Model the fold of this input.
Amino acid sequence: MRRSTFVLGALALMTGSLLPVGGSIAQEAETPQALVDRAAAVVTELKAEERYGDFAPYMQKAKAVLIVPQLLKAGFIVGGEFGEGVMLTRTMDGGWSAPAFYSMAGGSIGLQVGAESKRVLIAIMTEKGVNALLTDQFKFGADASISVGEVGGGAGASSVGSLDKADMVAFSRSKGLFGGGALDGTLIRPVPEKNAAYYGDGTTTRDILIGRTVTASGAAGLQSALSRR
Done:
């Protein structure tokens, strides 16, 4: 019990340092616009990060992007992670669609202890990768035909080898200490209730990302951040 309490306490203290002053995890997660705004901040931050020098070229070629501003992970023997974010697809004119809301969750059992908060951005490089994320749910590692390259842990993209053939390339920045961190087993799903709250009842993920029947003035900052070189 003491160890579990320590892990949860460490997670609360650590994630608090990544939120705006006076903010809270619950408040931020409840507001779709807050997710959109924080996603824009993640894009700007990664573009300015010298360790990720290859980030901009990948983004210029990406057919879609999934951004999770805060993926929380904690555990002692049994671990779990959860975060919410947004996905946008490339438009015909080279711009970006309105954002659709997604969640990312996973769990694991094994030798592990600690707490961690990650900022995660996944550049989706192929139509196959886009279609995988348009399903009701997608689990990393379950579909062997989808290749995923990961960049994180302080290593620059150029140091992990060529990722040119990957369907998805995941960039992450983390704060905290946790054993492991691979995406295998992590589940990604659309969040219909957040789409409905942001765009109106009946709006589907495909309406937003493929049909592009909606607009979002509140996403202009995020779209601009993604388009800037």
